[in-house]
Amino acid sequence: MLTLYHHPFCPFSRTVRIAFGEYGLNAEFVEERPWERRREFLIVNPAGSLPVMIDGDGAAICGVRPVLEYLDETRGAELDGRRLLPATPRERAEVRRLMDWFDLRFNAEVSDYLLTERIYKRFMTPEQGGGPPDSSAIRAGRANIRYHLHYIGWLAGRRNWLGGDDLSFADLAAAAHLSCIDYLGEVPWEEFEPAKAWYARVKSRPSFRPLLVDQIAGMTPSRTYVDLDF
Amino acid sequence: MLTLYHHPFCPFSRTVRIAFGEYGLNAEFVEERPWERRREFLIVNPAGSLPVMIDGDGAAICGVRPVLEYLDETRGAELDGRRLLPATPRERAEVRRLMDWFDLRFNAEVSDYLLTERIYKRFMTPEQGGGPPDSSAIRAGRANIRYHLHYIGWLAGRRNWLGGDDLSFADLAAAAHLSCIDYLGEVPWEEFEPAKAWYARVKSRPSFRPLLVDQIAGMTPSRTYVDLDF
């Protein structure tokens, strides 16, 4: 049995949860609020970041990229056509480039601004960085997302999936970030039809369903969040 | 023949250069100043970041993690005992955790502050972000490095190399970041003997030598930078 330390609105954790669904893996989920810097959690992952996966034998795998590579190495070969990293080194490099694109660049330019200001801060004490949202950070996230939606549409127009012929970790990473932001109603889908069409395909997969039932206390999801025909 | 787009004081590029040395790979090096956002370079890597490796067949591999994984996949198997990712998934996950530690965390908390303020800004126009160094950013980098040197010493005291029994990408990443900062004389080696002893072992490897001849115009390296017996 796998255990995943995660937060329901951590995009990196969501990527792993979708991967579990695609791979047909069951796991026990432990919600962690990384800003609390819980001592027992820091012993497991000194970086204090999410996600952390505990494999059946007790090994802790820390960080979204190490977890996804580990899943591919330990479960990928059995999956054949459903493998989420392609077969050749060059194709794998392209998927990894896009994983970095979403987990580093999209995160720094969009997710981190919007999720910190609009979600995480609600749960943080002042000492942990809580407080009223910073409107200039929110404005930056709202401006930057447009460029990324354009790029997603550009990729989706040239390939079957973002990283190549098959669904891959690149799609999972991109969709995980967007799903958190979509909850907030911050994705201008109507202006970016190709990105919307790609997202609708990922969102309709059974692996995505568990994410759509997550709720933030006191904050209703946007109209588009759960609707598969948004 | 491989080509590497790099900058001499980009820690991510340096990690790949040391890996080339360990693997006995020759490459052509093209210096890139990513802050110039050169159009031809953005076509190769839309993220505009370093390093980018062009393999003999023209494939562009973008980003330090994709490049290192690609090198392991395409050249690792021939290397036997000199492979820089371990054999088992669990050991590989530990090396990848530490790659993330240095490339994300150490970079954000130390390298990015010190290298941007003390090196890159000297070459940037005001429009590119150039200008006088921000002393509060430098102070933050100087404070944060101590915690990381402590952690390196802690790891080195428990293992043969940072990531396990053998030299790995984790050592290369850590040493690449530290080497840039050491040029600036910003590493308080004397207070962190275990980290220093580990760094001396990496620094004395033939793969490291090409880095030690890099110079910044108008800025002499620190006393400890070239000295193998610092």
Strand arrangement within the widest β-sheet of chain A reads 2-1-3-4
Cα distance spanning the termini of chain A: 35 Å
Average of the residue pLDDT scores of chain A: 96
**Would you report the number of β strands of chain A?**
4
Question: What is the CATH architecture annotation of the largest domain in chain A?
Answer: Up-down Bundle
Give the largest interface pair and sizes.
Answer: A-B, 25 and 25 residues
Number of discrete domains of chain A: 2
In the CATH hierarchy, the third-tier topology of the largest domain in chain A is known as Glutathione S-transferase Yfyf (Class Pi), Chain A, domain 2
**Shape descriptor of chain A:** globular
Helix content of chain A: 40-55%
Oligomer: homodimer
InterPro entries (chains A, B): Glutathione-S-Trfase_C-like, Glutathione-S-Trfase_C_sf, Glutathione_S-Trfase, Glutathione_S-Trfase_N, GST_C, Thioredoxin-like_sf
Pfam family, one (chains A, B): GST_C
Protein name (chains A, B): Glutathione S-transferase
Subunit structure (chains A, B): Homodimer.
